[in-house]
Amino acid sequence: MRLSDEPLLHTAEIAARVVELAAEIRHAYGEATFTVVVVLKGAAWFGADLVRLLPPTTTVEFIRAKSYVGDRSAGPPEFALFPESGITDQHVLLVEDILDTGHTLAAVCERLLKVCPASIKTCVLLDKPSRREIAVDVQFRGFEIDDHFVVGYGLDYNEQYRALPAIYRMLPE
Ligand code: IMP
Ligand code: MG
Questions:
Q1: Is residue 91 a contact partner of residue 109, using CB atoms and an 8 Å limit?
Q2: Cβ(38)–Cβ(61) below 8 Å
Q3: 61: which of 41, 46, 80, 127 lies 20 to 30 Å off by Cα?
Q4: What is the pLDDT of residues 6-22, one digit of tens each?
Q5: Are 118 and 131 in contact (CB under 8 A)?
């Protein structure tokens, strides 16, 4: 696999959309305080940019879900880290990098529900709707993309390319 020459989404496009998403989120929550739960590793970049535009009372937790090997989903995700405290009775905004089949987000929601948050809303930077296998409720969505494997801005291919500031497609050699 190799990187596309041109980004699919440029840094300025991503940054502008993050500003819009933050405005939508602030509007939806109004005066209510909430906890952002960032799904590691991929959403760390998006989450860090997003929370800087949210109210200063916003708290942040992390959950690690790993399900991908190469460009294939490897079944149900494993949770390597979980914030047991800081979630119960809180309004939770789950922040994920990309929604593909939907299995990861569904499993993360199921896991979070066990610690009884007051509510859960979800925010994804990218959505590949054509790949969905399980229905997931998403309230805030950055971009809909076609069925490409993408990297950069936190997204990886075998752990590489997360550091790219823009989002690129991976192409066959
Ligand atoms: P799902 O469980 O199939 O919805 O996959 C979601 C997870 O798979 C995301 O959290 C990503 O880590 C990973 N993933 C899905 N599509 C891509 C992609 O195009 N590039 C990089 N990671 C991806
Ligand atoms: Mg991920």
A1: no
A2: yes
A3: 127
A4: 999 999 999 999 999 99
A5: no
Nearest to 71 by CA among 164, 6, 1, 136: 1
Ligand 1 atom having least distance to the Cα of 99: 4
Whether residue 100 lies in the annotated active site: yes
The answer to whether residues 70 and 46 touch, using CB atoms and an 8 Å cutoff, is: no
Alpha carbons 45 and 143: distance in angstroms, whole number: 16
Reported pTM: 0.94
State whether the beta carbon of 67 lies less than 6 angstroms from ligand 1: yes
Contact 141, 25 (CB under 8 A): no
All residues at 6 or more sequence positions from 116 whose CB lies less than 8 Å from its CB, including other chains? 87, 88, 89
